[in-house]
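Sequence only, no structure available. Ideas?
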Amino acid sequence: MPRAPLADRFEFVVIGGGINGVAIARECARAGRSVLLLEKSDFGAGTTSRSTRIIHGGLRYLENGEIGLVRESLRERERLLCEHPHLVRSTRFVFALNETSRHSAMELRAGLWLYRRLGGNGNHGVQSKTDLRELEKNLDSGHRWSLFDYEDGQCEFPERLVAEWLADGLQSGLEARNHMEVLEVRTKDGRVDGVVTRDQFSGAEQFVHAEWVVNATGPWADRVYATTKLTHVQPMIGGVRGSHIVVPEFRGSPKSAVYSEAADGRPGFVIPWNGQVLIGTTEIPDQGSPDLTQPSGSEIAYLLEMANRLFPAAKLSRADVEYSFAGIRPLPNYKESSPHSVTRKHIIRNHAEEGAMGMLSIIGGKLTTAAELARQCVRKMGVSAGRPRELRVAAGPASGIESTVAQWARVVSEQAGITEAQARAIAAWHGRRALAIIHAARADGKLREPLCEHSDHIVAEAIEAAKYECAMTLSDILLRRVPVALKPCFSGECARTAATRIAAVLCREADVEEGLQRFHAERSAFLRKPEASWSDPVERVA
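Reply:
I predicted one. Tokens follow.
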């Protein structure tokens, strides 16, 4: 699909369209600067979409004494809860300890007391004693359990958060290109000069001048830096693979997120997610290509064992795994230390001393602190970062107040000719943009059609993604902008229905078969169904 050539000069080029790269590019654009955001795949398709999908202060970071990081994370958690309440929800977590746990009840009480104090004693909900008793009844009865509940956040679809920040940046003048690979970062006289790009669709290459280049590619950071052809003593990134599995809700599956310890003492989560249960995660050193990372058979077994130790009545097996996925955490190079003890603080590395003045690389970072990282990064480049908005709950369908959303949905559904369930689904994923989507649907019956017969999401959302959120392919839409392909009921028939209905509006009927082929290839590479015959070598998973 042809795209217009880029301008030949920008003040800032940001490479990498995950949560950190999009946040940095948005911050530059909001400051009125010319900025180009480049992503070789699609925005949010890498590490961002392969996370545990929680917005948290990092209770476990207290163990390593990283109190400053915890305070910063808790502050940013509150900001996300207030600014994006339709996407980031307050969630009750329950820490489940038994007599075999590494931590004592006293240690955990002290840690939770400090965690709450650092978080400003915020309280967005209360876990009922009845729910705690119900959970304890479903845990392994062969142990004595101590349950401690606390508050954190969940972002079920960080892909949507990336899309919102991207749209915000585009409205502020950001130029963004996905499916655009950076072949080389060029330097001249000890300073960065620009980047050579290649369009993944047309193959066209172009050189773009830049005064600053930000390498925000996460686990790909060393590979991008290597294109400068400058001497680099040691890797910046010590990649650590984190794998997850998704299973259907089972008898006794928790209503709250459960945080506990596996047999080896490593923390793990069992989290209600997207009508399913998300189980994670592992920590395995992985220096391979982040494009090819996949969960190993031993990791699948490890996660199943952890879940079954907590909920033995579930009797989960590989046959129960809907799919698994893995991503590489871009932690700082940790040499001989354990991945568990490596700092989760982000690092902004300046390459001036290496002959690339004007080039910064982002090491580490996480969903919760992406906006703060962006503010720090642009200040290092001499841009006056906007002050964070005052924390307050938004009004309208993005308020996060369920009764308000329900009332709003009843009104707009009658006006637009869609169901209340569809109106609520649109508000849940699009916040303030929901009204514009519904107005478009009201004017065109094709836009009111569901993406598939199992979904409350409609074609108008896909068209919004193509027009305002840089969605170029069927995968961009169904896996990230309107991520119905992550739902438990999604099938090949659903994909064909969605592709046909979207193409009819975009007048791309001839592209349906090719789009479906690419979609199925990308989805199966991302969301992998474990095979019963897997017999990977045993790995140390923690």
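The longest strand covers residues 205-215.
Hope that gets you unstuck.
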